[in-house]
Specification:
Helix content: 25-40%
CATH class of the largest domain: Alpha Beta
Strand content: 15-25%
Shape: globular
Number of domains: 2
Strand order of the largest sheet: 3-2-1-4-5-6-7
Order of helices and strands: EHEHEHEHEEEHH
Structural class: alpha/beta
Number of strands: 7
Radius of gyration: 18 Å
Distance between the termini: 53 Å
Length: about 190
């Protein structure tokens, strides 16, 4: 039995892409999902495709540890992201999979293809999926201390405080984008 982790961006709403990609999974694949905003649609899709689902929950502050526990038992990941959000669960999953050589696919709204292990792939998705081998579990995962998961949702009753906190969070996110972006060097 193969184990697949399915992760989406917080604001991911392109259900047809998820349905299309999950339809290639065989019925003996177990799908792992984390409780999130779009879990209802994921459950409906997996139910329609006769896939078994394992749901995982987070406790505040222990998101990354739960991701590491899940990655120890999965064979591959499917990440649905537009790569515009930083310090979120899809980013943490892709970074951890890349450094620990766990196969992962990432899909976006920007292109028809997919990325396999971080690179754009032109091979048929179904063919690459069949080539993934069942691995010995649990695998050892190298933990990274530089990965952080930010929660930008703030519960505040005073509107002035809420606006201030949101501006503060976005300034932190913008500074992280500046440090991670590709810079052109003139010679």
């Amino acid at each position: 039995m193969m184990n697949c982790l399915v992760v989406t961006d917080t604001n991911w709403d392109n259900i047809p892409i998820i349905n299309k990609r999950l339809s290639y999974l065989s019925e003996n694949t177990r799908v792992h999902v984390f409780y999130s905003k779009g879990i209802e649609s994921l459950i409906k899709i997996t139910s329609n495709l006769n896939l078994s689902v394992l749901r995982h929950s987070f406790k505040k502050g222990s998101e990354f540890n739960k991701i590491l526990e899940c990655l120890k038992v999965i064979d591959f990941c499917m990440v649905f992201t537009d790569l515009i959000e930083y310090n979120n669960i899809p980013n943490a999953v892709m970074t951890t999979c890349f450094t620990n050589e766990i196969p992962f696919f990432s899909f976006s709204n920007f292109n028809e293809g997919y990325f396999y292990k971080g690179e754009l792939n032109n091979t048929k998705f179904k063919k690459v999926l069949r080539e993934i081998k069942n691995t010995l579990k649990p695998r050892t995962i190298e933990k990274h201390t530089d990965i952080k998961i930010e929660n930008i949702f703030i519960k505040e009753t005073d509107i002035n405080k809420a606006v201030y906190k949101i501006k503060e969070k976005y300034s932190v996110l913008n500074s992280l984008r500046e440090t991670k972006r590709i810079k052109l060097i003139d010679l």
